[in-house]
Amino acid sequence: MSKGVKGTKRYIPLEETGEVCPSPEPEPRTAAYVFIHFIRPLFAELFGVMFFVFVGVSSVCRNKTGTARIATGLAHAFTLFVMVAATAKVSGGHLNPAVTLAMTIVRGLQPIVLAPLYVLAQLLGAIIGAALARAAMPSTSYDAVTGGVHMLGHDVEPGQGILAEAVATSILVLAVLMVAFDDRNKSVLGPLAIGLAVGGGIFAIGDISGGSMNPARSFGPAVVRNYWKYHYVYWVGPILGSLFSTLMYGLFLASPNRLWLPIYEPVD
């Protein structure tokens, strides 16, 4: 029913009166709006990455036995599971510049100006988390593993490290898009799937590149330790992997209403 103007005797539609319905005024950018939509999610990303990197670096520095890779993978998986679940309703639980890149492309992050702010918050949180890990452990343990910095394995070339990081990150980003973002596939188990993707990635490529899949996770320890050898591997690989999975999602795997190529026939 059309909106109209109430007269004394009857309801007169606007089409008959010729009046134009005024458009609603835009929502004012109040302090509460800025806090809820900008400050709050940025702090969620900062704190989430801070805790994740603290646990990640600590798990690497305190495990030097034959089961170190298992312990490190589980520590990363469980912590990311908890942090994504804790921040999902506040910031979306990205906690990773590669994930933020994917979510920006599929328009899962609005307004788009938040994307660079998210990345800055993640990098700052990673630095703080790595610094806290450094302060919490003896120098001997910290120095023994170069401060938990990601490094290429023995005889591994940078190109191989980039490929390993790209493939593992592609699995992670696909999990994010399919179980935490997509309308039809979204699940309450999304945070668990994301955590398991990271844990599995560490098991798979830990001996090749260290298993980062997250530029922020590599950046924080590198800053605190001041170790930058082949650091670009941990940006190029995850970014390529993120772009690949985003492309596959948008072209083939997304729900019909989110596919980039339009479908003109109704789909159940």
TrEMBL record:
It is found in: Membrane. GO terms for cellular component: plasma membrane. It is a multi-pass membrane protein. Keywords: Membrane, Transmembrane, Transmembrane helix, Transport. It holds the Pfam family MIP. One of its GO terms (molecular function) is water channel activity. SUPFAM superfamilies: Aquaporin-like. InterPro entries: Aquaporin-like, Aquaporin_transptr, MIP, MIP_CS. Its main location: membrane. Belongs to the MIP/aquaporin (TC 1.A.8) family. This is Aquaporin-8-like isoform X1.
